[in-house]
Amino acid sequence: MNPDEKPPVEPVLSPGLEFQKRRHEGWNTSAEAISGIIQEVFNSPIREKKKIVNGENNEVYDITTESGEEAIVRIHRESPRFQKERWAIERCAELGIPVPKVLLIKDIIDNGQALQVCVETKIPGHSLDKTPAEELPAVLLELGQILLKLHTIPTNGFGRLDKDGKGKFATSAELALGNKDILPAKLLPQLADKPEEQQIVARAYEILQREISKHSTAESYLAHNDIQPNHVLVKDGKISGLIDFESASGADPILDFALWDFKFGKKYPLSALGVECDQNKLNIWKVYRLLTSLDYCLENGKKHAVTRTVGQIQEVLERFK
């Protein structure tokens, strides 16, 4: 290097992207394990393998084989997640909803660690947030229609699904109030140094207890439960696929819209999806989803997101008297 030249400056990442980067840096399944999985599925070696650093739950690779097949490999390190994804994807495909095809789900041991691997066909396209402005209105309306169709798929109970589409709760209120991860006894001690935030979270749970039964139902339907722009693929101005169903749940369908509204509603309002919701019902499910989001942030050390999430909770609480 010329002594007068300055070394390249590393880009400054947002706290969220820095958290994501650190997580992915710790996920390094051996090349031998991935090659063995691809050989089992396609009977062909890998020609190209690209690690995708996106999301916070899975190690992901974009694979092209020597024989030309393309696939996405996702690897999870905690509880098994992909069996319910296969059930949800198969039900969606039966209705003509564009989804990938699950080619293999397999439990393996790599470097002494238990992993679950899912191989799916690769859907062409770019994520929703990269859609040109002139195409976006039609794409958002199409997304709304696809979600409404997805929400006609019945499940056997509420909550995270098993491999047969069964949840553990009988009603949507039982799902909300039966979630031990959002109990004040768990959340409030983790906010001990922030008494104002403790008060907001405690009030949120009180309102959830008071209001959720008014909007409860015993009819459960499939919810994607993690619908976001990165999970909607677009090609040539049309939605080419919905992906990442690993959080699929039995739910009141408004659960998907509650999540979308508090995360992405300012940029992509529900009205742009052509979706109308009972606002009181939407708001109480936003309280629930925000509490689950807060638990996730606290459990995973996402300090940068805790205060923001509590602020969002407070904003929703202002709609309750």
Brief description of this entry?
The protein has 321 residues and is α+β, with helices and mostly antiparallel strands. The chain has helices spanning 15-25, 31-42, 82-94, 136-150, 172-177, 184-187, 195-211, 254-264, 279-299, 303-317; strands at 46-52, 59-65, 70-76, 102-110, 113-121, 126-127, 159-160, 221-223, 232-235, 238-242, 249-251.
Tell me what you see in this structure:
With 321 residues, the protein is an alpha+beta fold. The chain has 2 domains: 15-121, Phosphorylase Kinase, domain 1; 126-317, Aminoglycoside phosphotransferase (APH), C-terminal lobe (Aminoglycoside 3'-phosphotransferase, Chain: A, domain 2). It contains 10 helices and 11 strands. Strands 1-2-3-5-4 form a 5-stranded antiparallel beta sheet. It has a 3-stranded antiparallel beta sheet with strand order 6-9-10, with helices on one face. It has a 3-stranded antiparallel beta sheet with strand order 7-11-8, with helices on one face. The chain starts with 14 loop residues before the first helix and ends with a helix.
